[in-house]
Design a protein that fits this description.
The protein has two domains: 158 residues, Tetracycline Repressor, domain 2, CATH 1.10.357.140; 127 residues. The protein is 81% helix and 0% strand. It contains 15 helices and no strands.
Length: 287
């Protein structure tokens, strides 16, 4: 029973959902409000997490045929048959419906609509089509994964504005160097699964150049909150340090063929995103 429960938890991709909720929380806290947004913070993030978990479960179902071919994913519950496709789809449906009802009833229709579009974009457009159609899959489909901070923003304000969209832009630009570093490290897995990731279609050297260029672009984009007075000097100093480290990894990777270094770059990119959004939050309350 315990192992089955853990399998259902794995379907939800809890680590990914947790990172999404962290960025959503930051969006909520940065959004202009008369008082601290308790209801969106608790109820809103519950709804967002449930819908995100539904999308993750559908991703398991859609990718089962390639998950079994890749070392990183070969032990996933749907790929191994520990949870059937029918049960997985039912589980995703229950999670998605409950999450959407929470957002519609307790938060606002705008947030519910954007969350639904995010689900369709990730589980449908990206997983079923873009992932197998183009090496720019991560670039085009990255918007679905970048939207959580905007969901947090709209949960509080019931509106879309430049500051909320800037938070989305940061994650959107962060996504390609993050995933391409992993794609280099897992080059053979993606080749075996016939997924057209950039290293497999255009070569590792070309991918490393793109990682470096996107990382430089990310350094510029992530500085914009300071430029538009959305955040203060504390954030700017912190994000500058984080960007220097990320660029250092990207430069090292550009001149090095080590898959281990690619994985270290990938892991740093995860920490980087957490650092950026933590800095935004700390700067907001202590500037």
């Amino acid at each position: 029973m315990k192992s089955l429960l853990l399998d259902y938890v794995e379907l939800c991709k809890p680590k990914v959902v947790l990172l999404m909720i962290i960025t959503s929380i930051v969006g909520m806290c940065l959004a202009p409000a008369a008082s601290f947004p308790i209801m969106p913070l608790i109820i809103g993030n519950l709804g967002i997490a449930l819908v995100a978990s539904a999308a993750a479960t559908l991703n398991h179902v859609a990718d089962q045929h390639i998950d079994i071919l890749m070392k990183r994913t070969e032990h996933r519950p749907v790929a191994r048959g520990r949870i059937s496709v029918k049960k997985s789809i039912c589980f995703a449906t229950v999670l998605g419906v409950i999450g959407m009802l929470i957002l519609i009833i307790f938060i606002n229709p705008l947030t519910a609509m954007l969350t639904f579009f995010s689900l369709v974009g990730y589980a449908g457009l990206y997983t079923l089509y873009l992932k197998h159609a183009t090496p720019q899959n991560i670039v085009i489909g990255g918007l679905a994964g970048a939207i959580p901070p905007l969901l947090g923003w709209t949960a509080v304000t019931n509106s879309i504005n430049a500051e909320g969209l800037l938070l989305v832009l940061i994650i959107y630009v962060w996504t390609p160097p993050h995933f391409w570093a992993l794609a280099i490290a897992r080059f053979e897995d993606y080749a075996k699964a016939k997924v057209p990731m950039l290293p497999n279609t255009h070569g590792i050297a070309y991918t490393k150049l793109n990682i470096l260029l996107y990382t430089i672009l990310l350094a510029c984009v992530s500085s914009l909150p300071f430029v538009i007075y959305m955040s203060g000097l504390l954030y700017f100093i912190g994000v500058s340090c984080a960007n220097i480290i990320f660029i250092y990894y990207a430069v090292r990777l550009y001149f090095n063929d080590s898959s281990a270094l690619a994985m270290r770059t990938f892991y740093y990119s995860i920490h980087y995103l957490g650092i950026i959004f933590l800095l935004l939050l700390v700067d907001h309350y202590f500037k």
